[in-house]
Amino acid sequence: MTQGRSLAVALVVLSAGYLVAAFQISEPAGQYATIGPRAFPIAIGIGLLACAVWVGLTSSARRDLSSIDWRVVAMSALAFLVYLVLLEPVGYLLTTVVFIATESRLLGSRAWVRDLIVSVIMTASVYTVFTLLLGIRLPVGLIG
What we know:
This protein has helices at 3-23, 39-57, 70-90, 92-106, 112-133. The chain is mainly α and 144 residues long. Helix 1 (3-23) runs antiparallel to helix 2 and helix 3 (70-90) packs antiparallel against helix 4 (92-106).
């Protein structure tokens, strides 16, 4: 089995395990909401499983792992960890705008004005959906 196929099999197993766990999330009795607490985990699990199958189907077309710039991968992982640490004290809006703009830069974009505009629009859109439509409070932090 090739390296790509082995990765795909491992991802399918992990995704299936996540999906099984997502279906185990209990729904409160007498709930009248159409979207319960397990809806998003199930959607994420289905997405993970679809991505794992895609990796398996396209593994022969994969490029060599040695051509990956691991410095960018490490810096991206570090940026995500900093994002997680700062999310609660600084707040969702400011932290997410900076995170998206930083990730865009790390992934090769040099149009910082466009990246900043897109990050503000994406952050505001997600914030609006979560707070107004779903009634989920995101960390407010400094804006408080």
